[in-house]
Design brief:
Elements (H helix, E strand, L loop, with lengths): L6 E6 L2 E6 L10 H16 L5 E5 L4 E3 L4 H4 L4 H7 L6 H4 L5 E5 L2 E3 L1 H8 L2 E5 L3 E3 L13 H9 L1 H10 L3 E2 H6 L5 E3 L4 H13 L3 H13 L5 H15 L3 H11 L10
Parallel strand pairs: 2-3, 3-5, 4-6, 5-7, 6-8, 7-10
Antiparallel strand pairs: 1-2, 8-9
Helix pairs in contact: 6-7, 10-11
The structure holds octanoyl-coenzyme A.
């Protein structure tokens, strides 16, 4: 396993775990951290022994945003020339499911990073916000788009224009997170979810992820058609034969591609 400076990387069974590890900066997302997270996620994506990824931070902060100190003095030409943070798009190209386990602050780029994941499990201590407006800027890692799709215009405008943080309960009520769990159980519960996902056919989970994500980028008609084509294609997989045979024979399936 490669060594990284800003993250910890380990496996838990079939789950690949990436932990943001810049405690002194509350896991602020600098360029080096971005490169490491994307590289680690790509390595897990390519590893057939891994069926699902979990991305987490510390008890105090999932991530308190993009690294303000690294950006503060740059010009717009610098930011454009470097295409600042475009590298995060690599994370959205990971095809295995990616679970964010969020405790404490998920602010600015931290909230945006959590939203790049496929589902968010939040500790009851989690706080989500887009406080960029307080710095004279706006989201830059897709937050205005993903937040609006997740929570709708009213709440997204409220968060983007006022910089107000929402707690885990409001985040769940708004559809931003899928589950809220006690803080001391966060990692175990997120690993449980990821282990369950990893126990299923990877062929089917790739298709499920692609189908849901298609809903964010196309019309209903095209999305439904795309889903149907994926569904038909799955009938070419051994795992579909095994899954349906196991149901008929009243036994647990043993998926080959997992
Ligand atoms: N960047 C750099 N350093 C940070 C950041 C950050 N985002 N957040 C915290 N830190 C550092 C602090 O500077 C401090 O360091 P030091 O000890 O050297 O002074 C250390 O982490 C601890 O922070 P605090 O002392 O502030 O801890 P508190 O518990 O008092 O407060 C907060 C915690 C409320 C989370 C506070 O740290 C805070 O408000 N942080 C900034 C939150 C924020 O504004 N985030 C948005 C950043 S901008 C952004 O994410 C834009 C994303 C898109 C950019 C894309 C560009 C293309």
């Amino acid at each position: 396993m490669s060594t990284y400076e800003n993250i910890l990387v380990e496996t838990r069974g079939e789950v690949g775990l990436i932990t943001l590890n810049r405690p002194k900066a509350l896991n602020a997302l600098n360029n080096a951290t971005m490169l490491e997270v994307v590289a680690a996620a790509e390595a897990f994506d390519a590893d057939p022994a891994i069926g699902c990824l979990v991305l987490t931070g510390s008890a105090k902060a999932f991530a308190a945003g993009a690294d303000i100190k690294e950006m503060a003095d740059r010009s717009s030409v610098d930011m454009d020339a470097a295409d600042w943070f475009a590298g995060w798009d690599g994370l959205t190209r990971v095809r295995k499911p990616l679970v964010a386990a969020v405790a404490g602050y998920a602010l600015g780029g931290g909230c945006e990073l959590a939203m790049m994941c496929d589902l968010i499990v939040a500790a009851d201590t989690a706080k989500f916000g887009q406080p960029e407006i307080n710095l004279g800027v706006i989201t830059g890692m897709g937050g205005s788009q993903r937040l609006t799709r997740a929570v709708g215009k009213a709440k997204a405008m409220d968060m983007m224009l006022t910089g107000r943080m929402i707690d885990a309960e409001e985040a769940e009520r708004s559809g931003l997170v899928s589950r809220v769990v006690p803080a001391d159980e966060l990692l175990d519960r997120a690993i449980d979810v990821a282990t369950l996902i990893a126990s299923r056919s990877q062929v089917a989970s790739r298709a499920a992820k692609e189908a849901v994500n298609t809903a964010f980028s196309t019309t209903l008609e095209q999305g439904v058609l795309h889903e149907r084509r994926l569904f038909h294609a799955l009938f070419g997989s051994e795992d579909q034969k095994e899954g349906m045979a196991a149901f008929v024979e009243k036994r647990e399936p043993t998926f080959r591609h997992r």
